[in-house]
Amino acid sequence: MSPVSETRSVTAEPLTDAAFAQFGSVIDTASVAPRPMNDGMARRFHDLAAIEVVGEGARAMIGRVEAEPYPLPLRLSLVERHPLGAQVFVPLSAAPFLIVVCPDEGGRPGRPRAFVTTRPFQGICYARNTWHGVLTPFGARQDFVVIDRGGAGANLEEHRFAQPWTVHLPGTA
Amino acid sequence: MSPVSETRSVTAEPLTDAAFAQFGSVIDTASVAPRPMNDGMARRFHDLAAIEVVGEGARAMIGRVEAEPYPLPLRLSLVERHPLGAQVFVPLSAAPFLIVVCPDEGGRPGRPRAFVTTRPFQGICYARNTWHGVLTPFGARQDFVVIDRGGAGANLEEHRFAQPWTVHLPGTA
After folding, report:
1. What domains sit in chain A, N to C, each tagged with a CATH number?
2. Between the CA of residue A3 and those of A6, A7, A9, A103, A164, what are the distances in Å?
3. To the nearest 10°, the Cα dihedral for A67, A73, A76, A79?
4. Distance between B2 CA and the closest CA of chain A, angstroms
5. Is the pTM of this model over 0.80?
6. Region of poorest pLDDT, from A114-123, A126-135, A164-173
7. Which one in A21, A62, A128, B101 has a CA-CA gap of 20 to 30 Å to A101?
């Protein structure tokens, strides 16, 4: 094992479509060409994420979240996932935010990866059943539009790490 | 008939839950009490609109729209509706925007009503099959998160008024 993988320290990477693809989608205008709408008065960037919802009475639900900032480096002791639905967060301010996800390894979260948004108003969609940390603004409170699943059934699984991880912004490790 | 109803002029009203209820929902934090989440680090305003999607392969879809501003008073000659799905718009800036909707009268749009948002980042959900005008920022370009229906089927009906309407902001008629 390399020394890096032995540590409990993770450095965030810039959020890109390719790097995030295994965890879900980046919701941004940078990756698709717009379609004109409303007689040319608007440009639509279409179908930016698959908001998968499954199970009894499944429906997509919209809400708002006001999230307090976390001190950095982030101490990460808990991740969660939603077996029945994807989850979308789009910030209502131009500030970046931190995203932590983990690959699944036999039903448990593997080594975390962290991302930081690189463009104003970039959002993300966690694919259904993807391990992820809590909504993590830093510096100041940030508000978000959230879209996720409504309906019957158990849609939350949590995992608490025996030892916490430390997540750094790039250049601050 | 009152003189007002004989004119082709409409003055926008402040957007409120009650006034907009017959056309859909206001998406805002003002009308519901938040639930704590993430160990008290965030407040969630839950399930703010019914994003109804029906028909073959129906799913909720997320996109972004960049909309150019319209000159006011607005000249309104076209409204549309979506028989298979609701449509959500949440602005990514604090500026107000104008919303035009019409009650249905036997399959055709009745007299338009107009609303102007009253709080930063207020969004709206047009209920499925509700007549509405195009996305109408004024003053400056405004970007929006849009959620609407993906899937097979004809999901657009347009109505062009024989004579256009004129829509004023409050206090400018």
Report:
1. 9-34+45-168 (2.60.120.480)
2. 5, 7, 11, 20, 18
3. 50
4. 33
5. yes
6. A164-173
7. A62
